[in-house]
UniProtKB/TrEMBL annotation, chain A:
Reactions this protein catalyses: propane + NADH + O2 + H(+) = propan-2-ol + NAD(+) + H2O
Protein name as catalogued: propane 2-monooxygenase
Biased composition range(s): Polar residues: 1-17
Keywords: Monooxygenase, Oxidoreductase
Residue span, YHS domain: 427-468
First-level EC class: oxidoreductase
GO molecular function: monooxygenase activity
Organism of provenance: Raineyella antarctica
UniProtKB/TrEMBL annotation, chain B:
Molecular functions per Gene Ontology: monooxygenase activity
Stated family: Belongs to the TmoD/XamoD family.
Entries under InterPro entries matching the protein: MOase_MmoB_DmpM (IPR003454), mOase_MmoB_DmpM_sf (IPR036889)
Organism: Raineyella antarctica
Keyword line: Monooxygenase, Oxidoreductase
Protein name: Phenol 2-monooxygenase P2 subunit
ATP-binding as UniProt keyword: no
SUPFAM superfamilies: Monooxygenase (hydroxylase) regulatory protein
């Protein structure tokens, strides 16, 4: 007698079982063949070109679609079984979180800012990835690929849903969670991941796979989901750890799919190499810029921190990325073009970005604060060559102004990068006291960029990126006419409630008062 | 030489899995972090079904790993008896 989940383990010991006989079980490789390849057929009513019109226009040459194999060899029947178990575990824990005042078990109310950014910026990206994989599954011509894309499309919508469900418990008690869907489309800092996903979804199917499957999943999601979720555990957030690890259990499969896709393209035809390399260069840099948001969450928003952004980068960026690109060197792939600039930026980006958030915090649907002395000491220790020299003096200055009742608020609008849509707040590689700014004239218009990496992306596809919707110019268009209160209403931001300083906010007052009630009867 | 890795949720289901990986891969380094265990190994890591079954005392389907898997790195190959991660160099 075996458990259901153990069936294939048991059958492996009985190789004499004949396929086709009642009750006979196939081994994993045969099952994968029968449940994927055998589902395909050669079309006769229509040509393959008519059915799959997009597989060739990017220039990728494919000679044998059957060479694409999912190394997990996951079939739909097993997929449903394991995903159902993940969902049962997830909802049991989310129920327990809600039933046991989970919203009061977090280390500090400041932690909520990280969750708000996650919900506004990342969860809608999961939904976008769902749509993208549903499309890619239709457009790829191989059955193995189609099945893997179908699974990933379902995974991604599950991630969006479980994240919204888990965080809805916080929305019952705290500010800034309620308008994430509007924020996704309209808010200045969430337009960064939005533009990343819109760019990927409007690309061809192979480029989409490089953008999401390879750069985002393989190279970058480890930085988002692994140390940050471990951080959520450290900060007492049962709900987020649960959705994070539940999602990440799918990501391992997605990463594998991304890596398989890249190997598949490179093995199919040597002409694919320059196309693939250009996509790697582009999407590494696009992803790296999106991760700027994550760097602030890890260094500044977790009251109890597991590791710094720099330490996470050392493990998941340098060590893992180097191993990967060393492995792909056999095909002629080189590390992404922006790799060295990224390394230079690591010790600066979270500080530069957090200082930007703080001075524009009238326009953020989360709270910011000046780091405590203890937090600044931690940052000095983690960033020994940069924090005390460049960033502590700025925070000390801001602290002094706030103590004097004259806080600095930047009411000017940020210059946005045409490619990544981040404000141009980053410095030149190798020169942390000079702002990095690039400008290009194209068809009589001026376009601005935060970095060489972003300018390169534009230079390669100007007709795509001149169409970018940018949140700052929109403020001056007809419907808003430059009115900040109208803009706040339009993005779903409630002034003096969702935005501004953490100290003195409704979130701080409620968290402190409710937490006191947990150990008192008065 | 490059390192492959696998990270699993820290729970009762993965305890014997991690123990089996440690026993079968003497060169592997086990890092215990909040809520998760990350196992690094130079060049190659192998997870054997039989070693896990021995410790669990019940039949085990290697695909069950997916429930508690957090992340991995390296070229992967899986059949019913083992899962391997490798970097080619």
């Amino acid at each position: 007698m075996t458990t259901t989940a153990a069936n294939s383990g048991t059958t492996a010991k009985t190789p004499t079982a004949k396929s086709g006989a009642p009750g006979a079980k196939l081994n994993m490789k045969d099952r994968y063949r029968v449940m994927t390849r055998d589902l395909g057929w050669e079309p006769t009513y229509q040509s393959r070109e008519a059915i799959y019109p997009y597989v060739e226009y990017e220039g990728i040459k494919v000679h044998d679609w059957d060479a694409w194999e999912d190394p997990f060899r996951l079939t739909m029947d097993a997929y449903w079984k394991f995903q159902a178990e993940k969902e049962r575990k997830f909802y049991a824990i989310v129920d327990a979180h809600a039933q046991n005042n989970g919203h009061l078990h977090i280390t500090d109310g400041r932690y909520l800012s990280a969750l708000k950014i996650f919900l506004q910026a990342i969860s809608p990206g999961e939904y976008a990835a769902h749509r993208g994989f549903a499309r890619a599954g239709r457009e790829f011509a191989g059955v193995g690929t189609q099945v893997a894309c179908q699974m990933q499309a379902i995974d991604e919508i599950r991630h969006a849903q479980t994240q919204v469900h888990a965080l809805s418990n916080y929305n019952k008690f705290y500010d800034g969670f309620h308008a994430f869907a509007d924020a996704r489309d309209r808010m200045w800092y969430t337009s960064v991941p939005r533009s990343f996903f819109d760019d990927a979804m409007s690309a061809g199917p192979f480029e989409f796979m490089i953008a999401i499957g390879f750069s985002f999943e393989y190279v970058l999601t480890n930085l988002l989901f692994v140390p940050f979720m471990s951080g959520a555990a450290y900060n007492g957030d049962l709900a987020t750890v649960t959705f994070g690890f539940s999602a990440q259990s799918d990501e391992a499969r997605h990463m594998t799919l991304g890596l398989e896709c890249i190997k598949f393209m490179l093995e199919q035809d040597p002409d694919n190499l320059p196309i693939v390399q250009a996509w790697i260069d582009k999407w590494f840099w696009r992803g790296f810029r999106v991760l700027g948001l994550v760097s602030t969450m890890m260094d500044y928003m977790l009251p109890k921190r597991v590791m710094s952004w720099r330490e996470a980068w050392n493990i998941y960026g340098i060590e893992n990325g180097t191993a990967l690109f060393r492995d792909l060197a056999r095909y002629g792939i080189k590390p992404p073009k922006g790799w060295d600039d990224a390394e230079q930026a690591i010790d600066h980006m979270s500080h530069q970005f957090m200082l930007a958030f703080h001075q524009w915090n009238f326009g953020t649907s989360f709270h910011t604060w000046v780091p405590s002395d203890e937090d600044m000491d931690w940052l000095s220790e983690k960033y020994p060559t940069t924090f005390d020299r460049y960033y502590r003096p700025r925070w000390e200055h801001i602290k002094k102004l706030e103590a004097a009742g004259t806080p600095f608020k930047n009411v000017g609008l940020a210059q946005l990068c045409q490619t990544c849509q981040l404000p141009c707040v980053f410095t030149e590689p190798g020169d942390p006291t000079t702002l990095c700014h690039r400008e290009v004239e194209y068809k009589g218009e001026h376009y601005h960029f935060c970095s060489d990496g972003c300018q390169d992306v534009f230079d390669n596809e100007p007709e795509k990126f001149i169409q970018s919707w940018l949140p700052m110019p929109h403020l001056f268009q007809e419907d808003l006419a430059g009115s900040v209160p109208d803009w706040m209403q339009w993005v779903g931001l409630i002034n003096d409630t969702d935005n501004g300083e953490y100290v003195g906010s409704g979130d701080e007052q409620n968290f402190t008062a409710w937490r006191r009630q947990t150990t008192s009867n008065s | 030489m490059s390192k492959v890795f696998i990270a699993l949720q820290a729970n009762e289901e993965t305890r014997p899995v991690i123990e089996a990986i440690e026993a079968d891969n003497p060169h592997a380094v086990v890092n215990r972090e909040p809520a998760m265990v990350k196992i690094d190994a130079e060049h190659m890591l192998t997870i054997n079904r039989e070693s896990i079954e021995e410790l669990m005392g019940r039949p085990y389907d290697l695909q069950e790993l997916q429930i508690n898997l957090i992340t991995l790195s390296g070229n992967m190959d899986e059949d019913e008896d083992s899962l391997t991660l490798t970097w080619n160099e």
